[in-house]
Amino acid sequence: MSKETTLAEVLASLPEEQRIILTLHYLRSMSSAEIAALLSVPQRSVDAVISAGKARLSGLLGL
């Protein structure tokens, strides 16, 4: 990705589940427990997606 790549572009490139969870967590300030309840998935799954997504975002944004 180029230096001009925006966060919105990077988020759009992620798989849907990862994009939704990361958006809820980082942009809506929801906890993993709140996201798990909202999406009816185990909290451990949400935590795993957040962890993997954070690493992927860092790589894509060159951080």
TrEMBL record:
SUPFAM superfamilies: Sigma3 and sigma4 domains of RNA polymerase sigma factors
Domain RNA polymerase sigma factor 70 region 4 type: 7-57
Protein name in the entry: Unannotated protein
Species the sequence originates in: freshwater metagenome
Molecular function terms from GO: DNA binding; sigma factor activity
GO BP annotations listed: DNA-templated transcription initiation
Pfam families with a match to the protein in the record: Sigma70_r4_2
